[in-house]
């Protein structure tokens, strides 16, 4: 396993990337797992962390597992990169924006595509919860073009219990398929809204499949052997990304144009009924099979 440090832009807002030369760069922390057999070029996968940061039992497990299946796997650590890796979930959510996470995803794509031992036409992206939302957003051509104007694109997108917050006015996609994996008892996600997002993606040009595991909670592939409760959830958040790159609250029309406004809009709709997390080994086995199938189809 290698630990490359890769320059990544650090935009607070999507619109900041309209003038990329004015956006500061940071050294992105990541773990690179390469297959032990052969010298490539291998297919690749970028692994985006959930709000808790990369865990040995989840993101790094997938990095190791996928390298054993012949993939060059890059596990992203967006939170340590921005010096909040040791902070709580709320601080990480408020300090690391969606634009930052998208930047890291495409920085990972750029890094893998630039390696001689990776096939640039066969690089997928997977993500968990917060990172799952980003894995879906990366399928929209508007956002891919913003962060990767050279035309390099992900070959497939897999979202594990991804937050169901944003929709785009322009649903045009890169054409790569998108797989949404959800627990039927996950109260951090609006399954109805994920269905609408999947319809957006289909209309925009991507095959988009929603797989719902009945009687399963959030983070079924985590460490929680007994049910763990988190006191806030995001299922009521409804943001819209305009063709101009401006993020607006769907209900009020208010613009997310600063860190304070982002905090205010999230606080306005956050749900104090919370959600639960519980490991489910059978579901983990099933979702692993779906993941490998999606990646092998690139």
Automatic annotation (TrEMBL):
GO molecular function annotations of the record = hydrolase activity
Query: Which Gene3D superfamilies does this entry report, sorted A to Z?
Result: alpha/beta hydrolase
Record's keyword annotation contains Hydrolase: yes
Asked if Hydrolase is a keyword of the record, the answer is: yes
Looking up Pfam families in the UniProt record yields: DLH (PF01738)
Per its UniProt record, what InterPro entries does this chain match?
Answer: AB_hydrolase_fold, Dienelactn_hydro, FrsA_esterase
Q: Which SUPFAM superfamilies match?
A: alpha/beta-Hydrolases
Q: Which residues form the Dienelactone hydrolase domain?
A: 35-219
Transmembrane stretches in the record are none
- The superkingdom of the source organism is Bacteria
User: Which UniProt keywords are present, listed alphabetically?
Assistant: Hydrolase
Q: What is this protein called?
A: Dienelactone hydrolase
Organism, as annotated: Silicimonas algicola
């Amino acid at each position: 396993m290698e630990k490359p440090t890769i320059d990544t832009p650090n935009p607070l807002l999507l619109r900041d990337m309209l003038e990329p030369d004015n956006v500061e760069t940071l050294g992105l922390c990541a773990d690179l797992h390469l297959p032990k057999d052969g010298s490539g070029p291998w297919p690749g996968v970028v692994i985006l962390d959930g709000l808790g940061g990369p865990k040995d039992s989840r993101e790094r497990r997938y990095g190791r597992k996928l390298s054993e299946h012949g993939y060059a796997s890059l596990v992203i650590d967006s939170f340590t990169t921005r010096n909040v890796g040791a902070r709580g979930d709320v601080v990480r959510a408020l300090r690391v924006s969606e634009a930052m996470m998208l930047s890291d995803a495409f920085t990972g794509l750029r890094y893998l595509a630039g390696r001689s031992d990776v096939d640039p036409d066969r690089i997928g992206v997977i993500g968990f919860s917060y990172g799952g939302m980003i894995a879906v957003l990366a399928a929209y051509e508007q956002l891919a073009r913003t962060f990767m104007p050279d035309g390099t694109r992900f070959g497939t997108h897999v979202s594990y219990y991804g937050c169901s917050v944003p929709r785009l006015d322009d649903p045009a996609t890169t054409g790569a398929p998108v797989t949404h994996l959800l627990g039927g008892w996950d109260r951090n996600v609006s399954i109805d809204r994920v269905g609408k997002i999947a319809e957006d993606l289909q209309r925009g040009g991507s095959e988009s499949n929603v797989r719902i595991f009945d009687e399963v909670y959030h983070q079924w592939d985590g460490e929680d052997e007994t049910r763990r409760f988190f006191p806030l959830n995001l299922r009521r958040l409804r943001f819209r990304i305009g063709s101009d790159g401006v993020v607006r609250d769907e209900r009020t029309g208010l613009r997310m144009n600063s860190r304070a406004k982002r905090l205010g809009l999230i606080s306005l709709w956050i749900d104090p009924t919370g959600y639960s997390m519980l490991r489910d080994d059978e579901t983990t086995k099933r979702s692993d099979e779906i993941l490998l199938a999606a990646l092998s189809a690139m």
